[in-house]
TrEMBL record:
It comes from the Bacteria. Residues 7-64 form the HTH cro/C1-type domain. Pfam families: HTH_19. It comes from Candidatus Gallacutalibacter pullicola. Coiled coil: none annotated. This is Helix-turn-helix transcriptional regulator. InterPro entries: Cro/C1-type_HTH (IPR001387), Lambda_DNA-bd_dom_sf (IPR010982). GO terms for molecular function: DNA binding.
Length: 121
């Protein structure tokens, strides 16, 4: 399986259309179609998109590039559990952390802007 097929597998497993998948990445559905169809003249130019796929969809970069390992990386449960112990976080606190990690960049910025406004900074 090549990288184009793995990208298609990621998108399919997330049950997203090419258009919806592309919107998350900031590209058109046509770009996703070309990537999945292995119709790139210079695939190395798509490295930023490959990295963005990994970041936005929690995909293992090693798996995407080589097919080795698991497709998806799990959220850092162990790290969150360590923080919960260290900072005496309850289940609601942990849910807030999970929810924040799943937000888009724009949603995170909106929350930061709101918190800055509350703190007067």
């Amino acid at each position: 399986m090549n990288i184009s097929e793995r990208i298609q597998q990621v998108r399919s497993s997330l049950k997203l259309s090419r258009k919806a998948f592309g919107e998350v990445l900031g590209v058109s559905g046509d770009v996703i179609n070309n990537i999945e169809g292995n119709r790139l003249k210079r695939p190395e130019q798509k490295e930023p998109i490959y990295k963005l796929i990994c970041q936005k969809f929690n995909v293992s970069y090693d798996w995407l590039m080589t097919g080795q390992g698991e497709m998806f990386e799990e959220l850092p449960e162990a790290l969150i559990d360590e923080l919960a112990i260290q900072y005496k976080l309850d289940d609601i606190d942990k849910e807030i952390i999970h929810a924040y990690l799943e937000l888009t960049d724009e949603e995170r910025e909106a929350i930061k802007k709101y918190l800055r406004k509350l703190s007067g900074k």
